[in-house]
Amino acid sequence: MMNGSFDTFSLSDWEKKAEEALKGKSVNSLNTNTYENIKLKPLYSKEDFDNEKASQLPGQPDYRRGANSLGYLSQEWKVAQKVAVQEGESLKEALHTSLEKGQSAIAINAEKMTIEEFMSLIEGVYTQFPFSIEINEKQIELLAELSKLSNCEKISGYIAMDPLAALNGTSVKQDVYNKFANLIQSADSSMPNLRTILVNTSVYNHAGANAVQELALVLSTGVHHVQQFLNQGLKLDTIFRKMVFKFSIGANFFMEIAKLRAARLLWNKVTEAYGLNSQDHSMVITAETAAFTKTVYDPYVNILRAVNEAFAAVLGGIQYLHVSPFNEPEGRSTPFSERIARNTQLILKHEAHLEKVIDPAGGSWYIESLTEELAEKAWILFQEIEDQDGIEKCLASGWIQAQIAEVLANRSEDIFTRKKSVIGTNVYANLSDSPLQLHERANANQGGIPQVRLSEPFEQLRKLAERMGKAGNKPAAGLICLGELKSHKARKDFISGFFAPGGIHAFESSNIIKSETAVQFVMESNLQHYVMCGTDKQYEEIGIEIINLIKEKQPDVKLYLAGLPDSDKQEQYRLAGVDQFIHLRSNCFEILSSLLSEMEVASND
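^ that's the sequence the OP posted. Answer follows.
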């Protein structure tokens, strides 16, 4: 076996084999474009990536493969679940229970407690576990108290603030960095292993930014902080040692892995530009699964989303990780949801054995190529931001917000047309589902940057439908099912699934063979909207007759046709009385919004 070898195949051999499976269709027809304007190919080979550009081993510049040569074997990632109080227990009890059950960092919301409560909370554990705390106004007071503790030099992790994110970006005053610089210097003398400067890109991720924008903005924010602190007299070495970078991890698995790898690559370029030894100042990353991707309806799917995002974060090489509970949109958690979130990381560590594999993504031509392209595009955007006097000016002018809004509009259009699926929301929606009780986020607009979830527009439709139902006007539309079940089932099921994301119930007719039966169904059901479901042949044979009869008896009802007939027949159906064709490329959100508005108006008449 040692002397054996596999046959060598060229890229053209693989393409030929793929096209056989595609029955002669070109492999290039499977190319797709991402929101980062990157063309993804179905096949990648060594020709897609120049090995000379990348570090060959983890722990070597450019650090895309990780800062440590042994990966998580030498320094495991920290389970940094944000601990919350549950009914009937104290926060201290909750924290200690979590630490006993696998939590490996002290992660809490310190802004919502007094300094006295915080100091009592960490008693006995502050030197045993690193901190993982994002903080704003209370940082000065909190660090001052920590510096008084015995063995405070053993305190590690981060208790960090991002002035741009914390102070809404557009209103950062010079004295803020002055005070912050004094704090960093004093904290460094007593707690040298504690990081205090945060570069937070989650605010942009939660607004819908793509990976290129996040990377460019993390560079711009980091460089902005460096320059501001240099102006305050801090040493370059101190500034870089005190920085920690926060990312939210989205749904595109391979893109998120590449994003984290590209972040280290790019920050390495920054450290080189400042003339520092990059190995001593490599990027420390804290990550969280994205709130942007989570849904109110079918909430248990959020568990699957979080697993996918956490998996990508770990493969990307993070140091701290928070997995959001599946009921995160409610703004609270439960013992069950917290346990599932924490155990997600423990399973990845101990059962998937990710802590024992060094850079499992390394060497993948796809991921390496994606990493390189992301880095190149992000560097260009970073330079564009710097050419406009940096991130603070770009935030103040609204330029960054406009760039992100454009990407969000593209994302929204894709879920509106169901080109992209949000399971349980725009596809496979369950009308009997019990949704989470939506919590209005306090920071729904941060620095002029809206903090949103991708599923919110459809959720608003469902809420409207539920309100109408409680008022005694349950939204419903009739399905005129032509012929036997096998003739209309495919389109009937499609329409039922199309209406469900808007909370509209599909009221099905019996098998309709005659035109009179269809008219009778309309008269008895007494609804405002009907969709004809059948085959194209049935539409031609009996469809026009049915439409004419219905319009004659009930001229005010709106008729729709499931499917998209040939262009020469569409006008014929419209003249007969069809208002719209519902098909695979239809804008689901737009049609459902219109239907619900009409139903609401009709119910109020």
